[in-house]
Specification:
The protein is mainly alpha-helical and 119 residues long. The chain has one domain. It has four helices and two strands, in the order ααααββ. Strands 1-2 form a two-stranded antiparallel ribbon. A hairpin with a 3-residue loop joins β1 (103-108) and β2.
Length: 119
C-alpha cells in the first residue's frame, strides 16, 4: 500500500509541475478508485469528508441516488461522478501549489485500496 501511495504522491507532484503524462496517469489511477467510493458514499449516513461532500453534490447534480436500481444508466452516472470529482481534484492540484490537498490512503473491506482527499 505504501508503494501505491508513493506512486500517487509522485504523480501528484509531477502533475502539479505541469507534466501532462503524469496528469493522465494520475487520472487513470484515481478515477476508478473514486468510482468504487460513489455507491457507498450515496448510502452512508456517517462522517462527511470533503471528498464525500463533492461526490454527493455531483451525484445530486447528475440525478444519481442510492435508490436507483442497478442498471447501465446508473453505472454511467457513477463513472460521470467519479470523472468530475477526479478532474476537479487534478485541476485544483495544478492550479495552486499552496492549497494542495494530499492524498490519503484507506482500506475498504480490509483488502481493496481506495482513496480519499484529506479534509
Amino acid at each position: 500500500m505504501d508503494s501505491y501511495r508513493d506512486l500517487l504522491d509522485t504523480l501528484a507532484v509531477q502533475s502539479k509541475n505541469g507534466d501532462a503524462e503524469a496528469k493522465v496517469r494520475l487520472r487513470q489511477e484515481l478515477e476508478p478508485q473514486i468510482g468504487h467510493m460513489v455507491p457507498p458514499t450515496l448510502r452512508a449516513m456517517g462522517r462527511r469528508t470533503r471528498l464525500s461532500r463533492q461526490i454527493l453534490a455531483e451525484a445530486r447534480r447528475v440525478g444519481l441516488s442510492a435508490a436507483m436500481a442497478p442498471s447501465e444508466q446508473r453505472e454511467l452516472l457513477i463513472r460521470r461522478v467519479a470523472r468530475h470529482v477526479c478532474n476537479s481534484y487534478i485541476a485544483e492540484l495544478c492550479s495552486s501549489q499552496q492549497n494542495h490537498r494530499p492524498l490519503v490512503d484507506t482500506v475498504n473491506n480490509g483488502a481493496n485500496p481506495s482513496l480519499r482527499m484529506a479534509s
